[in-house]
Amino acid sequence: MAHFFKKFRKKFLVENRISRYLLYAIGEIVLVVLGILIAIQINDWNRDKNLYQEELESYNLIISDLKRDSILFHNYKITYDSFLDGYFKINKVSQNQGTFENVFPDFIAMNAEFNPVTQDNHQKNIDKLRNNEIRVSINKYFRRINQVKHAREEFNELITKESRPFFLVEQNILKNDVVFNYENRTFPPLLRVSTIDTAKFKESLKQSKAISLLSELRMSMGFYLAALDFAIIENQELITELENRIHNH
């Protein structure tokens, strides 16, 4: 091809056809520029295709972690609904409308957990996603996660700073023989074995501070569960949105 162009250039110069040579030269330059532009465009297409594939892979990883969150949320929901049920039953006991049968009173001293994985694994990479709608949806989900974390922290602070000091220390309602079970040193609540002396506990519920603390625990756990319910909804919505993006690519 180079030999072909060289032959034409020589022919034009020999015949002193300068105008045609200039026209040819311009045409040659145009062809070269077009070739460069086409090469750049193909490179851009390939780069965009690679970036899009990487983004789809990111969506799949996020979906996988969102589904792990979903399982955790389901377990948290079951566990902390039982806390809330316990507070209502204990309140009935305080009003002489029920007994401690089928009640696990240790909930007055137990912390709540909330450890989803998606935010920890992907928070730093969200800004790298090119789809703005997806970024907005994921950040919305993360804000909801932060709300549940805040609710958990409030509840745990109430347990550690108020409920335990009052019931376990001031009222001394722990059963020492259960706490020090030398035959089985497993943490009793893991075995669903109560460490609470229900007779002492019921007596402590006659105090206004006990009822006030019980009300605070009920409200704090209610806030936690309400925030968790919203997180469950947004978790499923985000999974659906990401799956639709993948299927419609």
Textual characterization of the structure:
It is built from 7 helices and no strands. It has one domain (68-247). Helix 2 (18-94) packs antiparallel against helix 7 (208-247) and helix 4 packs antiparallel against helix 7. The chain has helices spanning 2-14, 18-94, 118-122, 132-170, 176-179, 198-204, 208-247. Helix content is 74%, strand content 0%. The radius of gyration is 34 Å and the shape is rod-shaped. The longest helix has 77 residues, at 18-94. The chain is mainly α and 249 residues long. The model has no long low-confidence stretch (mean pLDDT 86). Pfam families: DUF6090 (PF19578). The chain crosses the membrane at residues 21-42. Keywords: Membrane, Transmembrane, Transmembrane helix.
Can you describe this structure in just a few lines?
The protein is an all-alpha fold and 249 residues long. The chain has one domain (68-247).
| Low-confidence blocks of residues | none
CA radius of gyration: 34 Å
Number of strands: 0
Structural class: mainly alpha
Distance between the termini: 41 Å
Characterize the overall form.
Answer: rod-shaped
Give the count of structural domains: 1
SSE map:
Layout: H1 2-14, H2 18-94, H3 118-122, H4 132-170, H5 176-179, H6 198-204, H7 208-247
Transmembrane segments: 21-42
Keywords: Membrane, Transmembrane, Transmembrane helix
Protein name: CHASE3 domain-containing protein
Question: What key phrases describe this protein's structure?
Answer:
249 residues; mainly alpha; 7 helices; DUF6090; transmembrane helix; CHASE3 domain-containing protein; membrane
